[in-house]
Structures are given as structure tokens and as C-alpha cells.
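The material for today's practical consists of a large collection of protein records. Getting from the letters to the C-alpha cells is the skill we practise here. To make this concrete, we reproduce a full record directly below:
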Amino acid sequence: MDVTGTIEQRKGRWQRFLDQDAPPQHMLLVRHDAGLPSRPLPHPDNIEDRVEWAWGKYQKQIEAVGWLNDDTIPHLDPYTGTEIFAAAFGCDVHQPEESNPFARPLIHRASQVAGLKVPEITAESLSTLFDIADELRRRAGPEAVMRLPDIQSPMDIAALIWDKNTFYMALIESPEAVRELAAKVRQLLTCFLDEWFARYGKDFVAHYPDYYMPAGITLSEDEIGAVNPDMFHDFFLPELVELSDRYGGFGMHCCANARHQWPAWKQIPNMRLLNVAQPPTETQDAYSVFADHTAQMHGWCGDGDPQTWRFPEASHAVISTGASSRDE
């Protein structure tokens, strides 16, 4: 079987699927992880194990192209926790024994922001990622698709750096300090992404969920459940517009209870795909609200037999399901 040709055909299907002006269609991803060992935690002392796990996952995906007729794009997965950019700014990182690492806040009051320097992308938490990705690309070759690490919006990263006990109050009492911190984060984030895309190509698989993007940026936006629409328009929307314009496309994951922000999401230009992680009733509403606006990939696609799942007319949906064996 021509694996390379099949992958290129799948990429073409994704490109058409993400074009909202194209006729409605759906994509299918079948989770088939039987035989893949548990993923090592993304701790600094697990680098070799992380590389070997990602390499094994990629080889398994390549092998499945020959027999599993879905739309998976095999990809190299330099996975991380949410801490990488906050750590680059100097945040201490907590490493639980059974879950992903996370950053502890560094900023506690507005007066501390001015003295915070923008780090280089050579900061250890980021340079380690390039080392992992370089090794995986060396093994797989220059055409292999890379998965993005865990990217949050600049405001979400700012909310990791700044203690939330005072961060939300600062949105009201010290808005310029919040904007200054988010601007510093955005400077680091765009420098990192510019280098990432220069090294590994503009097409990629999103960090979450794992859909293919021919170009653009994808990120998580989770703090917006705690702010009102005016604050979203003031602090969050401008940077999302800027990032979408800079990279030529946008995909967003949101696991916050943020229905009050749905109307404003339609103001983000070139939105290619939306993922909300909410209960089925809320998710069902999202399928309808965004059916004619953007492709969607949500955790809940329906109940029972996947062949019975139905989606609103005009929608572009990624159907994601699992199988515990090849026979299944």
C-alpha cells in the first residue's frame, strides 16, 4: 500500500473539511491504542522515555494506515503539560507523581509585572521541547507531521503566571498590568511558534483534540468561563484575532462553562474548528449554533451505535470513537 499517498489524500480531505464554504461532510477518527504502553509523564527526567513512547505511537499509526480506513494523520507527539511557557518566565513547576506537571504562580500583585522580563525560546522548558521534536523528526524524516505541544492563549498563560486570587481582581483594578503581562506572554508565544513552524512545517496536528490543520494556530481558551462578555471583548478577543491573522487560521478548545461567550467566538476570523468539552445537552446545542460557522470536534458525538449518530444540516463534524482491538 502507498502509505505516503494515502496520508496525502487524507490531508486533502481535512483541507476540504475545514473549508466552511465547501459542501458539508464529516471526518472519522477511530482510537485504536491497543498495545501502546502507558504514556510517561512529561517530566524533565523522562525525556528519553517520552521520545520512545512518541516514536512507538507514530509507528503504530503508520502501520494502521494500511488497514484502518479512517482520517487519522500519523504524527509525532512531543506532548507536555500546561506549564511550559509559565516555566520559561520563571514559575516554579510542581510535578505530581500521577498527573501532568503544572506551574505555580510567580506574580501576586500588579506592581510585579513591569519587572518581568520576556524570556528567550532557549529557556529550558522550551528548548527541551525542540530537542524532543528534533530527535523525532530525525527518526521519521522531514515529511512527518508534528503535533503541537500544549498551547494556551496568552491570557490563559498570564493566568498561570499570576496568582488567580489576585489576577481576576486585577482585571478590574489594574487592567493595564494584565494587558502588559499578556503582551509579554504573546511575544514569547509567537517567537516560539514562528521557530516551531520554521523547523517542522506549517501543517500540524492540534494538541487537543488531535485534528489536522494545514496551517494556522490552535490553542486552549479556558479562563473565559469566569469573565463576562465585556471582559472577553476587552482582554481576550483582540489577541485571538491577532493570532488568527498572524498564522492564517484558528482552532480552539474550551472546557470552561462559557456559553455566554459563544456569540463573540463568531467574531474570530478564519476559525477552522471548535471543540467544547461540556455535557451532552450543551454540546448538542453547540453543534447547532456553530453548524454554519466552523467545523466542530467535540467529545460527545452521540449515544449508542456510532452509525446512528446524526448532526445538524450544514455541519462539518469530526466523529471520534474508540476500538479496543483490530477486530472491533
